[in-house]
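Weekly modeling sync, notes
Attendees: S.R. (lead), two postdocs, one rotation student

Agenda item 3: backlog of single-chain predictions. S.R. asked that every request posted to the team notebook include the full sequence so nobody has to chase files. The rotation student volunteered to paste the first one in as an example of the format we agreed on. Action items at the bottom.

Example entry:
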Amino acid sequence: MLRGLNWILFVAGLALVAVSIISETDTGIGVFLIPAVGFFVAFAFVPYVAFGVLNRRLTRTVPLAICTLGLLGLSAFWVWGFGGAFWWNENPDAQDALILVVLPAYMIAATGALALGAWVLERYLTFRTT
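Predicted structure, as returned to the notebook:
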């Protein structure tokens, strides 16, 4: 059950990131916009992909629950950070786009720590019972 929920959260997180970045782009740049948007979307996908890979490898309930909380936390952090810079910002400025670098970097750092913790817990529970 948790594995299915994690896949739903994984796909929803990827869609949230892609749609939010694409919806806020300025199309006045033209064809040069496509690689830039693709880079930022791919950079923001990295933490979700890490949890997706981990979701396939984990077999115990508690590490899968940690992945579920991680995926929920990533999406909540993305909505808070991206929304604060683009959606709810009353005084936008040119430096708001730096959030496209800073948010994924923080998300990757948090994902690394949480994923490593879930993986170590999985290994501990597996070797403890054998």
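Discussion: group reviewed the output briefly. The chain has a mean pLDDT of 89.
Action items: rotation student to repeat for the remaining queue; S.R. to check formatting next week.
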